[in-house]
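From the methods appendix. Each design record in this collection lists the tokenized structure first, followed by the designed amino acid sequence. Records were kept in a plain field format so they could be parsed without special tools. The example shown here is representative of the layout used throughout.

RECORD:
FOLD TOKENS (137 positions):
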């Protein structure tokens, strides 16, 4: 069963979309691959059919690296990463939680970090590399 459609956009609003998450915010995670380490986003899962870009599709640029399998989309105006088609599961998007209206990466006290340095598609572990924790203390 799909969740409700959530409104989402990049920082400047040039790209706006709706997203239906696969399992609400239960799939929240980070990744430790070189790109994800640098971009620092917290992502949640959505099926490919779960995203509808209704504004600024022409403003979305893509970035691919290494095997070129994962397709990372970002706004060409403000540079914010919006979502990406996953290498580990090409039938899913990872969606930047910070783009979803009313959601912040700091809403999550603990975020699992997926093993991306030794990627499962390369024979590495499918496990959790660690956890990021946020506390106001």
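DESIGN:
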């Amino acid at each position: 069963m799909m969740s409700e459609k959530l409104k989402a956009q990049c920082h400047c609003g040039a790209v706006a979309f709706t997203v239906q998450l696969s399992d609400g915010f239960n799939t929240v995670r980070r990744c430790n691959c070189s790109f994800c380490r640098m971009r620092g986003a917290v992502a949640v899962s959505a099926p490919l059919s779960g995203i509808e870009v209704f504004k600024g599709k022409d403003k979305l640029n893509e970035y691919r690296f290494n095997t070129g399998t994962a397709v990372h989309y970002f706004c060409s105006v403000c540079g914010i990463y919006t979502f990406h088609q996953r290498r580990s599961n090409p039938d899913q998007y990872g969606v930047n939680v910070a783009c979803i209206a009313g959601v912040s990466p700091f809403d999550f006290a603990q975020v699992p970090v997926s093993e991306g340095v030794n990627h499962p598609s390369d024979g590495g572990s499918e496990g959790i590399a660690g956890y990021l924790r946020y506390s106001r203390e």
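APPENDIX NOTE: The radius of gyration is 14 Å.
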